[in-house]
Amino acid sequence: MSYTAWILITGSLVGISCGLVGVLLILRKMAMMADAISHTVLLGIVSAYLISSSLDGGSMLIGAMLAGLLTAWLVQWFESTGIHSDAAIGVVFTTLFAIGVILISTSVGNVHLDVNHALMGEISFIPWNTVDVPIAGSIPQATLLLMIITLLVIVVIALFYKEWKVTTFDPALAASLGIPVLLMHYVFMTLVSVTTVAAFDAVGAIMVVAMLITPAAAANLWTDKLITMFILSAAFGAFASCVGYGLAIWLDTSISGSMAFATGILFAISYLFGPKHGQLSKWFYKPGEI
């Protein structure tokens, strides 16, 4: 497969996996948790390296998952003591991220792991770091990891679709029905964490935040149906990746940055022309008019 094809596939996988997870983040009003976890996983990655002396995908996933869970637990604990949610997220996110930056600067500065790489990523290098897979042949390591995580996200969302729906829209009803709301919350935070770190090496934290939030926010302007929102968000994420790559080649600029910018363009279009909640729809159709 060609160099360009692997970049497009990798970007699309980031868009699909983050787009699916992002729907639940938006509907649960936890968008800022995406920003927090996308940065605090840096601490998990660094810690995993310090313990294992390896940058392989398995140790990174475990470290990131634990960092994500730590972030979610600390935020929830601060909220339970009376701290406002936004303040709790701000304190936890900046503190854990700062610890990760300090550890990189002082302990792992001699390896291929630095703050700029973590924030911006470099998807153009992805096709060069490959692994041999039976039958499939040579596949970029980051792409293979994203394939696995994307499949995991789809399976988890599909298997517990009803539980996600009830716990998202009415947690009190979910608790009365015997659904473990807190457990589902931490399963979701784990899903956010592993999705984030799978995209981390390829596109960096900034694009991860864009892909987690913007396609889902755009999809929310087109429909109120959850299943349709999942499909639209994943499609928007993949489409933005392809459009962003084209923009990057045309302008000779950052691929990840262009992909993130493309999600913003999609959101602007949805904000204006979305048939359900777009601004033009509100102007042309008054309440009671259909």
UniProtKB/TrEMBL annotation:
It is a multi-pass membrane protein. InterPro entries: ABC_BtuC-like, ABC_TroCD. GO terms for biological process: response to zinc ion; transmembrane transport. Its main location: membrane. GO terms for cellular component: ATP-binding cassette (ABC) transporter complex. Keywords: Cell membrane, Membrane, Transmembrane, Transmembrane helix, Transport. It is found in: Cell membrane. CDD domains: TM_ABC_iron-siderophores_like (cd06550). Gene3D superfamilies: ABC transporter involved in vitamin B12 uptake, BtuC. The chain crosses the membrane at residues 6-27, 34-51, 57-75, 87-108, 142-161, 173-192, 198-219, 226-249, 255-274. Pfam families: ABC-3 (PF00950). Belongs to the ABC-3 integral membrane protein family. PANTHER family: ABC-TRANSPORTER METAL-BINDING PROTEIN, METAL TRANSPORT SYSTEM MEMBRANE PROTEIN CT_070-RELATED. This is Iron ABC transporter. It comes from Jeotgalibacillus campisalis. The lineage of its organism: Bacteria, Bacillati, Bacillota, Bacilli, Bacillales.
